[in-house]
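Quick one: structure for this chain?
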Amino acid sequence: MLERLQLIYGSNTMRITEMAKELAGSFLESPDEFSLVTLNYKETSIEAIIEEAQTLPFLSDQKAVVVNDAFSFTGAKVKSEVNHDIDRLVDYLTNKNDDTLLIFKVFNEQLDNRKKITKIMKQKGKVTEVAEMDEQEVRQYLSSILAENEVAMDKSAMDIFINRTGINYETVTNEMNKLILYAENTITAEDVEAVVSVSLEQNIFKLTDLILSRKKAQAVRLLRELILQKEEPMQLLHLIIGQFRLLYQVKLLLSQGYQADNIAKSLKVHPYRVKLASRDVGKYSQEVLENKMVMCRDIDYKFKSSYLDRETLFELFVLEI
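Got it. Here's what it folds into:
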């Protein structure tokens, strides 16, 4: 029997939404706008959520209520249009006596297990974590989409696909759907290169590698492409700084005998990022990476204090570093 209280949390927001939809669909015989209600926790009071859950729809004895972005189960400080009466929600969860399926979607990697509301939710309902997939899981997921659509794709094409998209669930789903519409019976490497966009994360990996390889003209061209795509120079800088930091940390920990899985846990980053960093980090010395981080710090200061526009500063930085 399906638990009437459900909480789904994690960073994989698209999969959380899909899972909530699946739960509601399995509970309701014929979902419609009256039996399936979606509320935004930032805009809807606790009282309104409870009232909605306790009110049966017209001509039906089944109802599912999905509450988006229920941040009160986390430690995050979030601006909300309403002040939530958490004690009222705790009381409702403790004594829930209606048959409505109530699903809380929490877009956060961690719950705050010290909070009473989280403890009650775990006691009275079902809590499900939806983590980001690893590379092998993404490959299996993509294979299942291909099988459902009766489309073939060889390993080399999938390798290129993942090299362009990374392994973010939403990104790979959207890009694979585009590919399936574009291709006929078999997806080739040429199809991937023609259709699939390179993710920002993968572009940052490439841009950092070009900088470290001293391929300055290529680095500047890629930088200009990203800015034309409306990426903010300040954000790009911070992403590059973060990538240099990751390379430095991975190289240091590898030299101390750490394995990739342990490095990912220690640094609290996705194992796929560590895999990519480990692949390239042997090409650069610890000293080189330290010097690049110092230069990143200096350009960060210039960004905040110089009269020059940031795009010009960024290009000068890429040429100097």
